[in-house]
Write a structure and sequence with these properties.
Layout (H helix, E strand, L loop, with lengths): L3 E4 L5 H12 L3 E6 L2 H10 L5 E4 L5 H14 L3 E6 L14 H22 L3 E12 L10 H21 L5 E7 L14 H12 L10 H12 L10 E4 L8
Helix pairs in contact: 1-7, 3-4, 4-5
Keywords: Oxidoreductase
Protein name: SDR family oxidoreductase
Family: Belongs to the short-chain dehydrogenases/reductases (SDR) family.
């Protein structure tokens, strides 16, 4: 029987690489996004069998619609990767209420209610994965709100792992270090500043480089697989050692 997977924020970067990886392993995959350009790009980049859906990860109404569509299409889900995220770098006095609310809506609230609405489709053996960040454990200046959302995801994964274990549903989180994806260009830095930023971060990574989207996709594939059936409530750090050294 074909295994099914939903990937939010699956039209570029880590989400796209994960969709390609799971599709190559025989999953029926649905990815979501809200940017018309990346939605169109994903349709061209992904295998023909992967379905690309427009859905705002911060909208509870879209979550309800998506859950209904998936129920009608598949009847059940085996893997849910909660990958969609927004990040607005700003100091404490530089972020407004709208920017604060959007980050929590997309990174926390939308994920919680999507999972709530998908719950009837999840059965024994299914896997839920929150895509978090090392910022959940380590302070990053200018990213306090973003880091707070990532910490909330880890807390949700742990509590839901305990709550959903009697149903046979596993819940885990991946905390990312620096990964070279198109999201870096959304930080709003000029090219020279972005290059300096990447060099500064690389110097703090024990493995001496940024990770790749494929390396994260491989970690997701493991947590989704039968090889990880005794793994739940875990926070897997995939960071090249970033944040480990004193």
């Amino acid at each position: 029987m074909t295994r099914t997977a939903l990937i939010t924020g699956g039209t570029s970067g880590i989400g796209l690489a994960t969709a390609q990886t799971l599709a190559a392993r025989g999953y029926a995959v649905v990815v979501t996004g809200r940017n018309p350009r990346t939605l169109a790009d994903a349709e061209r980049a992904l295998p023909a069998g992967v379905r690309v859906e427009r859905a705002d990860a911060g909208s509870v109404a879209d979550a309800d619609r998506l859950a209904t569509d998936l129920g009608n299409r598949f009847g059940a889900l085996d893997v849910v990767l909660l990958n969609a995220a927004v990040e607005h770098p700003a100091p404490l006095d530089g972020i407004d209420e709208a920017g604060f609310d959007e980050q929590f809506a997309v990174n926390v609230k939308g994920q919680y209610f999507l999972l709530q609405k998908l719950l009837p489709l999840l059965g024994p053996g299914s896997s839920v994965i929150f895509m978090s960040s090392t910022g959940a454990q380590h302070g990053l200046p200018g990213l306090a709100v973003y880091c707070a959302t990532k910490g909330a995801q880890v807390a949700l994964a742990r509590s839901l792992a305990v709550e959903l274990a009697p149903r046979g549903i596993r819940v885990n989180a991946i905390t990312l270090g620096p990964v070279d994806t198109p999201a870096l260009t959304k930080l709003g830095m000029p090219a020279d500043e972005l290059d300096a930023f990447k060099k500064t971060i690389t110097a703090r990574v024990p493995l001496g480089r940024f990770g790749t989207a494929q390396e994260i996709a491989d970690a997701v594939a493991f947590l989704a697989s039968p090889e990880a059936t005794y793994v739940t409530g875990a926070t897997m750090m995939v960071s090249g050692g970033f944040g480990v050294a004193a």
